[in-house]
Write a structure and sequence with these properties.
Radius of gyration: 12 Å
Helix content: under 10%
Number of helices: 0
Number of strands: 7
Number of domains: 1
Strand content: over 45%
Oligomer: single chain
Length: 81
């Protein structure tokens, strides 16, 4: 499986798998830092940075943000309270 640049630690260690339990959910995790976050597969949008339809909404219990898998741009970052 190809790895991506992690939006949190910036290492090339970000991978994904499709959840067998939750429908339309992809689970992303980093092998270099403790980031594990979920993507709703129906939420893909065009990135303002690179104009590719590769921007997704990632969310965990701790944080949420938009992330582009093409250019690695992170936008709308929020800590969940």
């Amino acid at each position: 499986m190809t790895t991506q640049q992690c939006p949190k630690c910036k290492q090339n260690a970000f991978t994904w798998y499709v959840s067998e339990v939750l429908p339309n959910i992809t689970v992303w995790s980093c092998n270099a830092c403790p980031l594990q976050i979920y993507e709703d597969d129906k939420e893909e949008e065009v990135c303002e940075n690179c104009n590719e339809k590769t921007k997704t909404f990632l969310q965990s219990q701790e944080e949420q943000f938009n992330w582009c898998s093409e250019c690695n741009a992170v936008t709308n970052y929020q800590l969940n309270e």
